[in-house]
Design goal:
Layout lengths: L2 H11 L7 H6 L2 H11 L11 H20 L4 H31 L3 H13 L13 H9 L7 H9 L2 H6 L11 H8 L3 H5 L5 H10 L9 H10 L3 E3 L12 E3 L9 E3 L2 E3 L4 H12 L2 H15 L6 H13 L4 H10 L10 E2 L2 H12 L4 H13 L23 H17 L7 H9 L5 H8 L4 H10 L1 H4 E2 L1
Antiparallel strand pairs: 1-2, 3-4, 5-6
Helix pairs in contact: 1-3, 3-17, 4-5, 5-18, 5-19, 6-7, 8-14, 12-13, 15-16, 16-17, 18-19, 18-20, 20-23, 21-23, 22-23
């Protein structure tokens, strides 16, 4: 294949070229990508806190806050609460910095991009305090282990994870005719009586996670699914064992009765009722279309070829929702490699690809770029909406956004290791023949090597995943 196919493999399907990668991919770019699929995503260290740890630590913070409040402003109690909360936030930030570092150093950047795609597809935002601790663990615990198997397994892992259950308020959802619902109606406390069915998670499962907004569901399906997943909640911190998942089915809050979703009848089976609905949603033709379109939009073009999307959806259904089959179908399809296929880098893509090119791969470098990413309008795990961050060029290419990229390019150039400060060599090993002649001339004429690097990183050639 032509050298430009290697650039596509490394830059559009992957996260950008580290030194030597364009050469590694040159002989057979498709095979290079498929070999990464078989290896799967990176596994992060077992020593990182899991969701149980974070739930316990959140419980400790709440207890200390209450103690400080009950002690009428006791300074020691207030300080203990502040210290516990500070430690919690530091642990979260350390994990996010490690995640960034892994993306920069990995030799399997195609699977790593896939992991990040699913984190945005199943978006939760850390600006909602109750879910703030669980975005990174949800990616590590639910997405990384399941992103290359069956979508039904990935979907189930997500919808039972503390991050999603808390972010979309399902832990507060109570069936009106459940035991807890009937008790609430008899309670003298008006606040308790107001608690009832919450549709948030059910709506996003249908609209965002599976069928898509035009997937053929109605409001009645949202309500029926919301009833089916009442009782999907979490153990209390004091009841948690040191092993297993924090998910718990609470029969007392589950709405009893049979359900009908998308015309199909589901018997009352407690927790199994909701799981049966999710299993069917995972293999619905609308889900196949929705997932295929989003993946093709992310990896190929803002308006992906309909023939490519149709081929991917067909393969997905034929494989019973096997995600690796879906990815490999995309990689093997000629339209995924069409000359006009390209994607504009999000701020996250721009920073990670810059760091990979410059070999800025320390944890301090990773932490510094997280602040840059936030200033560029793409704060990690803060999409402000369950729909996730936008994935088209028009959302990231406004004048202010481009100006901030120029500023970020200079910051990165100033931080580049001395060994990476030859801008012409950097252009060759990161973009190959993808560098346009005008930019290459500007880089050569730069007043200093670091100015040349800044010009390269800010150039149109570097801004696109071509």
């Amino acid at each position: 294949m032509a050298p430009t196919a290697a650039l596509t493999a490394v830059n559009r399907f992957g996260l950008g070229a580290r030194p030597g990668e364009l050469g590694d991919a040159a002989s057979d770019p498709r095979a290079w990508l498929l070999s990464q699929l078989s290896a799967g995503a990176e596994v992060l260290p077992d020593a990182l806190p899991n969701s149980l740890d974070y739930l316990r630590q959140e419980g400790t913070v709440r207890d200390l806050r209450k103690m400080a409040k009950d002690s009428n402003g006791d300074m020691m109690a207030q300080q203990a609460a502040k210290d516990a909360e500070k430690e919690l936030r530091q642990r979260i930030r350390q994990e996010i910095a490690l995640r960034q570092q892994v993306a920069v150093v990995t030799a399997r950047s195609f699977p790593e991009r896939i992991v990040r795609f699913w984190s945005n597809h199943f978006a939760i935002s850390t600006d909602k305090n109750i879910a703030a601790s669980f975005a990174a663990p949800m990616e590590r615990e639910a997405i990384r282990p399941h992103a290359f198997g069956k979508f039904s397994d990935l979907l189930m892992a997500i919808e039972t994870h503390p991050g999603m259950l808390l972010y979309l308020d399902n832990t507060q959802s109570i069936g009106v005719d459940s035991k807890a619902g009937m008790r609430a109606r008899r309670a003298p406390n008006p606040k308790a009586a107001r608690r009832g069915l919450n549709e948030n998670l059910a709506r996003e499962i249908l609209e965002l996670h599976t069928l898509g907004v035009n997937g053929g569901y109605a409001q009645g399906d949202v309500i029926e699914l919301a009833k089916a997943i009442t009782g999907w909640s979490l153990q209390r911190p004091q009841d948690m064992s040191n092993t297993g998942a924090p998910f718990q089915f609470n029969a007392n809050t589950h709405e009893p009765g049979d359900r009908r979703v998308l015309g199909k009848h589901y018997r009352e089976e407690g927790e199994a009722q909701g799981r049966a609905i999710l299993t069917d949603l995972a293999l619905h033709p609308a889900t196949a279309q929705h997932l295929s379109f989003k993946l093709a939009r992310h990896f190929v073009a803002d308006q992906p070829p309909p023939q490519l999307v149709a081929a991917m959806a067909k393969a997905y259904l034929a494989s019973n929702g096997d995600l690796s089959t879906l990815y490999s179908t995309m990689v093997r399809h000629p339209l995924a490699w069409a000359p006009g296929a390209r994607k504009f880098k999000t701020p996250q893509d721009f920073l990670v690809s810059s760091m990979r090119a410059l070999t800025l791969d320390g944890q301090k470098d990773a932490a510094r770029t997280l602040d840059l990413q936030a200033r560029m309008g793409h704060p990690v795990f803060q999409p402000r909406s369950p729909a996730g961050f936008a994935d088209t060029a028009s959302d990231w290419s406004g004048p202010d956004a481009l100006f901030k990229r120029v500023q970020a390019a200079q910051t990165l150039a100033d931080a580049a290791p001395q060994a990476s400060t030859d801008p012409v060599q950097l252009a060759t090993r990161s973009l190959g023949d993808g560098m346009d002649a005008e930019t290459l001339l500007a880089v050569r004429r730069a007043e200093s090597p670091r100015q040349g690097i800044a010009l390269l990183l800010a150039s149109p050639s570097f801004q696109w995943r071509a």
